[in-house]
Amino acid sequence: MMMGADVENGNLGPYQDRPRTFPNMRSKPYAPLMFRILRGINVRVLVILLLLGFGYVFYIGASTSPIIVFVFTVCIVSFLLSIYLTKWVLTKDEGPPEMVQISEAIRDGAEGFFRTQYGTISKMALLLALVILSIYLFRNTTPQQEASGLGRATSACITVAAFLLGALCSGVAGYVGMWVSVRANVRVSSAARRSAREALQIAVRAGGFSALVVVGMAVVGIAILYAAFYVWLEVDSPGSMKVTDLPLLLVGYGFGASFVALFAQLGGGIFTKAADVGADLVGKVEQGIPEDDPRNPAVIADLVGDNVGDCAARGADLFESIAAEIISAMILGGTMAQRCKIEDPSGFILFPLVVHSFDLVVSSIGILSIRGTRDSGVKAPAEDPMTILQKGYSITIVLAVLTFAGSTRWLLYTEHAPSAWMNFSLCGLVGIITAYVFVWITKYYTDYKHEPVRTLALSSSTGHGTNIIAGVSLGLESTALPVLVISISIISAFWLGHTSGLVDETGSPTGGLFGTAVATMGMLSTAAYILTMDMFGPIADNAGGIVEMSQQPENVREITDVLDAVGNTTKATTKGFAIGSAALASFLLFSAYMDEVSSFAREPFKQVDIAIPEVFIGGLLGSMLIFLFSAWACAAVGRTAQEVVKEVRRQFIERPGIMDYKEKPDYGRCVAIVASASLREMIKPGALAIVSPIVVGFLFRVLGHYTGHPLLGAKVVAALLMFATVSGILMALFLNTAGGAWDNAKKYIETGALGGKGSDSHKAAVTGDTVGDPFKDTAGPSLHVLIKMLATITLVMAPVFL
């Protein structure tokens, strides 16, 4: 970590009675190499290069399809809007000097950790790229590749290039999420001194900038790859690849995005929760000081963690979710169009890109619908922030329904089945309703305005143990409704697609799986607004920390506390949303995996019989993988938190003047501890996730070779993927909801209920919150990334299992 010498040594100047200023704690500001190169280019040269780049992109887009040109246009407009939002946020004042100094310390810590973490991830990505290259150079080819003349070397280079581009874009998405959060936090804090509504608007627009960039990058990255491959490989010309097979070349992009997202989520989650647990256990429980109190040596590490764990990791996470869903839907759309002999299949293939282009449009309107007020004076918000956010979400959903229906009529109309587009439009409506219901269910179980969290808070009045028991039971119960909703949505969408009228050469209906893909697109058709709400949470949390550390008036902290509590709920709801979309996307990727195996094996592969002992063992291994991964992730937080606890206790003992504001805590020491430990601890569970399916598939492939079952390895991996998906969804729902409920039960007591801050009930609630921290911000979010990564890695590595 490149922290300033002042922070590392704790020499932050005199610390007289309750100081209101903090000396500069920053070292040199950091920007990634790519951004530093761009800054060093002459502005005129840069403008010319950008125009040439845009011109070439539009040229290959026009050479591919007018639909691609439409996608490029919408994405560029959304990027321009994101620039406007950035300038709007950055024009807001940063408040008094003490706020600025604290914000700069947070920014320095976050950027330093990001640089180190992504440097490590980059090295691992390059190593994995070499492995993929080696496998593809020696693998068998499919009949489609042989027919198009696509050799092993070309296929290997395409897959590796797509993997590295996906990893790079996922990393940039993470950096964008972190970049805006470390600059918006202090502006939200400053706005809270004037108006709660203004603070809310700044936090939402800062999150909106990140969301538009992340979704836009996912869409434009896939569109550019598709168009480039289309032009380069001369798709659909005589003797070349068919357009319906082209989406399979994009799988590496999704794998690269998943790879980076998993390690970003693991490393960031371990960092943020280890610091949070250490700060709470010693600060709140042992010393009885408030959250984010400047006397707590771990407070800066905690605030840094909000940015690297919740913002950077969530940006990479949602980027990966959208990329995986788009690619899987493109594959299924191409496969269905080929079976149905549709003359122009481009509409079915490019439909996901258009849906997410409209997502950028409708989400932008939803973000801009949240406006500030000119009320003066510091006062509690007249309107619940959650209500304001829900209004914006409702506007986004209504517009999404209209644009989705228009998109299906535009792209999915075919003479083979004139009414099919209506069925697929209803599939999209199923997905949109599923997303809304998921958000509502998670809100019900995690918002302290509802009974479950209040019951959990009441259990704190009888002790720490009853709080833990109540939280675990709430988390277990919360898995029921989401699973029922997912089940109904999958069946409904499959049935609507199945009855769409699209049939293959034998007259068999073929639209079922594509109907499920369309429902997944519908669920993610408001993804940009969902990510905005998610980014709102850590920004509001950071703002509250800055207000507390700079010792602003109590009524300012009341405003940030309300925003923080709403942020906890929005983070929990978006995690529930992510789990639901992960379930549907994994179902699609599993179907694509079976088609890929069938192509390589040159024989049908449509069913997996779990009555075969080896296949059943594969399923058991898949479920075990989920539990072992979760255990290692939580244990990593526990071990790192122990180091933080010991360090914070040491400082309180060796510097007794800290409690009386006579000595300054060594904030940098805690930052350094959690940074180094999180980088070390993320390797083990991440490696487990990557290596397990490859090793299992290869070992059972060898066993199948000697026992006369050539597809045994592929079948075992399919069972592993199925069981891991089911177990992972349930585990992630439990972990995310229980953790969010524990957090908001503590927040509810801090509003003055059940004795308020410092009471025995509050101490028990803090214990529950501490237990839930690794659940909701480390293991839970990492699991739904793991589920999709398992699906993409099996798709990419399918030749290893045959």
TrEMBL record:
Is Membrane a UniProt keyword of this protein? Answer: yes
Q: How does it sit in the membrane?
A: Multi-pass membrane protein
Give TM regions. 41-61, 67-85, 121-138, 158-182, 202-226, 246-264, 348-372, 392-412, 424-442, 480-498, 510-531, 576-594, 615-638, 686-704, 716-735
Domain of life assignment:
Eukaryota
Query: Known InterPro entries for this protein?
Result: PPase-energised_H-pump
State its location(s).
Endomembrane system
| Classification via Pfam families | H_PPase (PF03030)
Enzyme class, spelled out: translocase
What is the protein name for this chain? H(+)-exporting diphosphatase
EC number(s) for this protein?
Answer: 7.1.3.1
In this entry, which stretches build a coiled coil?
A: none
Asked whether the keyword Ubl conjugation is assigned, the reply is no
Q: Which UniProt keywords apply?
A: Ion transport, Magnesium, Membrane, Translocase, Transmembrane, Transmembrane helix, Transport
